[in-house]
Amino acid sequence: MKKGLLLILALLAVLNGAARAYEKECVIVTGGVSLYEWEKFKAQPHDHWWANFVHASRVRMDQLRQQYGPDARITWLVYKESYLKRGKQEGRDLIPLIESVRDAVHCKLIFFTKTQEMLDYLNFGQDRNAVKIADFEFFGHSNKACFMFDYSAELDSGSKCWLHETELTKINRGIFDKNAFVKSWGCHTGEEMSSYWRRATGTRMWGAIGRTDYSNEEQVMLSDPHGKWAN
Fold first, then answer.
1. Which of 41, 46, 50 is nearest to 89 (CA)?
2. Which range of residues forms the domain containing residue 223?
3. With contact defined as beta carbons under 8 Å apart, do 168 and 202 qualify?
4. Domain membership flag for residue 41
5. What's the mean pLDDT when you consider all of the chain?
6. In the chain, is it the N or the C terminus that has fewer CB atoms within a 10 Å radius of its CB?
7. What is the Cβ-side half-sphere exposure of residue 37, based on CA atoms within 13 angstroms?
């Protein structure tokens, strides 16, 4: 009888552990777009459309919703300052348009203005012992060493808010599911930043060798003829 009770308790513990394992979260981080104030005189100006990164994020969140179901945790972190500035340029408030994407996708929307706010959510926004990040993806400007949440919105061809590869150790290693899918849809991050990501977090990050192109409304594409995705 005692052995039977112990067996039942052990089985319940395994089942509870399995249930906890399915408490997972998808996190999408969306950087800001540039201003024509800085870009209009360039041979190849960035961000003709204010929703470059917002639309691509929405397409991906729709895919995640289909993949994981209606009750899946999807959290969308958006760098707010660039969209406030771009809104002034366009003569309209872009924030309600971003919020309408939240409502359509049924995700949790969090605006951030500093890199640390984004990091704090990753590390502490959920009880990471109970809710692991199963999917992390970045849409925005980047180079081989850096996510640039702000780019060419306050400085010409420069950024005032970023996450550099040397700062990735600020991300707690235990927050990701062991089979987490991680991808940067920005330019060049597969050339260097992906290796720093793996050393810092213990997960692999897919990134682009070369530049990426957001002009296709269905999918972010590689724009370099010899470009490829690498992790």
1. 50
2. 23-230
3. no
4. yes
5. 90
6. N
7. 16
